[in-house]
Amino acid sequence: MTQSISSKLQSLLDEADRIKKQIHQETLSQQELEQKYFGKKGLFTVLSKQITSIPKNDKPQAGKVINHLKQDLQDFIEELSTYSSDPLTQQAKIDLTLPGKNPIIGHLHPISQAINQISGIFEKIGFIRVRYPEVDWDWYAFTSLNMPSNHPARDEWETFFVDQPPHHKKGKMVLTPHTSNGQVREMERVGEPPIRMINIARCYRRQQDVTHTQMFHQFEGLVIDKGITIQHLKGTIDYFAQQFYGPGSKSRIRPFHFKFTEPSFEVDFSCHICEGTGYITNPDNSQQRTKCRFCKSGWHEVGGAGMVHPNVLKAGGIDPSKYTGFAFGWGIERTYTLKEGLNIDDIRLLYSSKLNFLHQF
Amino acid sequence: MNILVPHKWLLDHLKTKAKPTQIQEYLSLSGPSVENIIEQNSDQVYDIEITTNRPDSLSIKGVAREAVVILNRNSIPSELKSTDAKINLKLETEELPLPKIDNSQGLCQRITCIVLDQVQAKPSPKWMQQRLEQAGFQTHDCLIDITNYVTHDLGHPCHAFDYDKIMDLGGVINVVEAKAGQPFVTLDQIKRETVGGEIIFTNEVGTIIDFPAIIGTANSSVDNNTKRVLLWLEDLDPQKVRTASMAHSIRTVAAQLNEKELDPYLAKETLTKAISLFQEIAGAKIASKIFDDFNKPHAPKPIKLKYQTCSKYLGIELEVYQIKAILTDLGCQVKLSSKTKNPTEIEFTVTPPTFRPDLQIPVDLIEEIARIYGYHNIPNKLMSGQLPTNPPQDNDFEMENNLKTFLANIGWQELYSISLVSQELAKQSGFLLDNHLQLNNPLLTENQYLRRSLIPSLREAVAQNPQESQLSFFEIAAVYHPQKGDLPQEKMMLGMISTKSYRKTRGDFETLLTKLFIDQVLIEEDEIKKEKNNNKYLQVGKIFAGNNTTLLGQIAIFSNQQIAIEIELDSLLKLAKKHPTYQSIANTSIIIEDLTFNLPLTTQVGEVIKCLEAVDSIVVEVLLKDHYQQNFTFQISYQDPLQNLSNELIAPIRKKIVEEVENKTDAKLVGKV
Fold first, then answer.
1. Rounded Cα distance, B475 and B415, in Å
2. pLDDT at residue A21 above 80?
3. Is B297 helix (H, G, I), strand (E, B) or coil?
4. What is the pLDDT of residue B530?
5. Would B284 disulfide with which of A22, A48, A249, B278, CB 3.0-4.6 Å?
6. Higher pLDDT, residue A4 or A237
């Protein structure tokens, strides 16, 4: 039995339908729509007031229709806000040249980024990352590394001494000037080779200028096993150069002297600006060459390396007649700033709080 | 130590067709590092770095010696020229007596000297002045210039006394060890006092008349009026020279040479060269015999090097004759022996030359062989042995990195600030200044103490950026807690500081912890700490996590509204997990509703939340949704895993919630249940 509905209800139903169709044609902004449909004299507001004049029997149905309409209208308006509350994007077509709204992000410090990359490279070939103390005994920082006290070689490290009584066996308390204090510590920790260590830590030296800071970071590699040769040292350095500076990077070693390695080397990486040649060809005149100002004859010195001195192995409790090893120790800052295109000219920026520097990374 | 070697001077000793750029390249690859070629009026001067173990190369001749070996090996024929001065040592004038030299204590390994008469203290010839200047020496008159010249040429320091001054002082030279407090005036006119233990020359009455191996004294050195010279060379114990030189901070070229092990055998050719230059340039006439008191050192110890050891280090097998040739070229005497006919059983017995005291053990020889053979000729390869599998257990670098990366991604800037702080910053750490480790020799007073908290440094960083409206910095670094009789405890801390609101800063921190699958963070006000601080913070709270039993660190509110958090990293990492414990998902419905309570000022929100959470197990979540003045709206989620909830089932719980809250706290519901 169909129930006839009152004419009042019918006109309400029709109006609701009309309003629903209308909003889908709208191109107004969210705010404008709210006003037009839900404002004091809004289309919906006016309609919903009509419910009072609906006959009692029809009221439930009217109520349902009103609620559905309200939901529909609100959904439509709500969806518009997912585009943006920005009036500019209310049009059906979006201007694609509009710049994005960027979230606020922070930055990992460039030193952390360098450390991550460097430790990743070595971990891939089986090195274990460690972090040895910054405040150490003279024994670990110098004496165990075959450096007798009062030897001229110690001058070069320009060490900070801590105002504490010395240890009766291990000597004075110092701030380690290099991560090499980790060498004998690692030998003690591991005991029997194989050892593949990458020690990354803060170091300290009494020097502060454009290329030196009192506090800096170094990474120290140590490999000890049966049958380790100079070839492995060269191979490891070369592998690092390829990974860190890119394929085509060359490395070389030259004679040097450290008390804790023998033979000792200085390690160079090829200059990416002159591609290791030492000269830059004039782009307008291929006959003309000028000396590359950024490097020394095509190469950059990155730091020292060498075969672990037998006395150091002994100090670490390892038998030099059975095992050999190599070690290298370089500055994180120095190694990192040699990267192509980085152009950092003042290392002190790395330990400052200058946001216009830090925000670039 | 760097030396300057003019190319033309080098060619006095080196016969070669090599161009300067070739000399630079080949020397640097196999020997001393030629850092630079300085062009000076069409002359080239090599700036060479010589390592501390190679004093034999600290001279023109020394560099030439290296160059001969290396250039030949690179197919550029080269020879060492003989430059021994051929002089007639006959008296050329009336004999003058030598002073009485007493080296009976044996403090000088060698003393050699001669008296020269009729010297003229005039300017040196242009060629010598030019060479000395190119080599970095200041020129004086020829008497001093000649001694500097031969020192740089041959590598053994040489000194000229004013003979008459020596004789006027008594004509006696005693070689003794100084007691402390003896006065002397060095030739730079500076008055000094001995510290005790330095080797000095004195006359009969104990007046110091020379500071040997380091610098001359005013009372015996040559001047414009000098007519007679006592030309003198000595060799002292390098350790004693070093101690004395460092004690007085006198770092002359002589000191820097003599503190390394120089070859005493060099003294003779240096003396004869100096004599011939004095004759030629200063008009000197030989007026005495040569005095030579030489306590000859033991011959260099032969080193036994097994062929196999050499191969072990290089990873390649060189030809036996190649090894012998390299060592011989470098001045060593090489004998071969073998227990069997097998060449790999060969053992070399190598006696180094007297000018190579740095060659002592087999690896020293291996370095010589390898560098002359050429490091670039050795192949590269990676290790292929077993991998170590025992990382230290007290670090988790991966988690540390995840932590940092997450903070950076949600808007925090990582800092690296210096671990050495000023007195002011040390006092702000909450620890007494005296309970900090400090440096004996700081470079700057603002970097003297080893910090015990990261927060003062982070606050300083904020203060250094006043133009920024919102700053959030963090740092992970060690703080240094002194331990009696031991190294400090280096405790890794996470320090955070922000100018954001308390809720936002805490929100970031709580989200960081949820990333590490640590839930339940509780912060409680720490009344005691607040009173002890030197720090201008208004409030301090303790941070607990993980069932609220682990104390992670502290949070502080400063009087300028900055919020700081400092957490012990190892405590955090112990609680952290790499994955959650999965909670199975119930199929039943969740009902979410809001309840608003009015809290008096004395009631803490945390108290109310705790109460709400504890009322019934079907309350699965309570969030602070909103607040306006003292009205706090809590969003409460209800779920029963066993049945779908309805308004009817919830109503009694809701009532209970309100009762509990109103009974246990001073909060009052706004509106009706």
1. 5
2. yes
3. coil
4. 52
5. B278
6. A237
Instruction: Give per-10-residue mean pLDDT for chain B (673 aa).
Output: 96 95 95 91 93 94 96 95 83 92 94 95 95 95 95 96 95 94 93 94 94 94 94 94 92 93 93 95 94 93 94 92 95 89 86 95 96 95 93 92 96 96 93 95 94 96 90 97 96 96 94 90 76 65 85 90 94 90 88 92 91 91 90 93 88 92 91 79
Q: Which domain holds residue A35?
A: 5-82
User: Do the chains contact at B33 and A131, CB–CB below 8 Å?
Assistant: no
Question: What backbone torsions phi and psi does residue B590 show, to the nearest 5 degrees?
Answer: -110, 130
- Determine which of A285-294, A334-343, B126-135, B627-636 has the lowest per-residue pLDDT on average: A285-294
A194-204 confidence digits (pLDDT tens): 999 999 999 99
What's the pLDDT score for residue B302? 96
Q: Is residue A98 part of a domain?
A: no
Cα separation of B539 and B563, whole Å?
10
Interchain pair B383, A234: CB under 8 A: no
A51 and A194 both lie in a single domain: no
N-terminal to C-terminal alpha carbon distance within chain A: 76
Whether residues A77 and A115 share a domain: the answer is no
Q: Are the C-beta atoms of B142 and B154 separated by less than 8 Å?
A: no
- Reported as a pLDDT band with limits 50, 70 and 90, residue A218 is very high
The verdict on A313 and A179 lying in the same domain is yes
User: What is the average pLDDT across A14-41?
Assistant: 85
CB B48 within 8 Å of CB B32: yes
**Is residue A79's pLDDT more than 90?**
no
| Rounded CA separation B462/B468 (Å) | 9
Bridge partners (DSSP) of residue B361 are: none
User: With contacts defined as CB-CB under 8 Å, which chain B residues touch A256?
Assistant: 33, 51
Retrieve residue B272's tokens: 């004869």
Distances (CA, A) of B377 to A250, A299, B95, B241: 14, 18, 60, 40
**pLDDT at residue B86, as a whole number:** 79
Q: In the predicted model, is pLDDT for residue A87 greater than 70?
A: no
- The CA–CA distances, whole Å, from A311 to A308, B304, B451 equal 8, 17, 35
What is the C-alpha to C-alpha distance for residues B477 and B459, in angstroms, rounded to an integer? 15
Mean pLDDT over the full length of chain A:
89
Angstrom distances, CA of residue A29 to CA of A35, A70, A84, A85, A298 = 10, 18, 10, 8, 63
- Other Cβ atoms within 10 Å of A198 Cβ, number: 23
Instruction: Write down the pLDDT at residue A82.
Output: 60
Q: Are residues A302 and A211 part of one domain?
A: yes
Is residue A191 domain-shared with residue A260, that is, in the same domain? yes
Closest alpha carbon within chain A to B363: A262
Give whole-number Cα distances, B341 to A272, B1, B334, B344, in Å.
51, 46, 19, 9
Q: Do B388 and A204 touch (CB under 8 A)?
A: no
Does the beta-carbon distance from B375 to A131 stay under 8 Å?
no
Whether A163 sits inside 8 A of B440 (CB atoms) is: yes
Q: Residue A99 domain-assigned?
A: no
Give the gap in angstroms from C-alpha A195 to the nearest C-alpha of chain B: 6
Residues of chain A positioned with their CB less than 8 A from the CB of B314: 229-231
Structural domain total, chain A: 2
The whole-model pTM stands at: 0.84
In a shared domain, residues A32 and A177: no
Do A10 and A126 lie in one domain? The reply is no
Q: Give a yes or no: residue A93 inside a domain.
A: no
SS3 at position A344: coil
- A224 and A274 co-located in one domain: yes
CA A42, A45, A49, A50 dihedral sign is positive
User: Residue A335 falls within a domain, yes or no?
Assistant: yes
- The token pair that represents B628 in the structure block: 């306006």
The CATH number that applies at residue A327 is: 3.30.930.10
Q: How many beta carbons lie within 10 A of that of residue A47, not counting itself?
A: 20
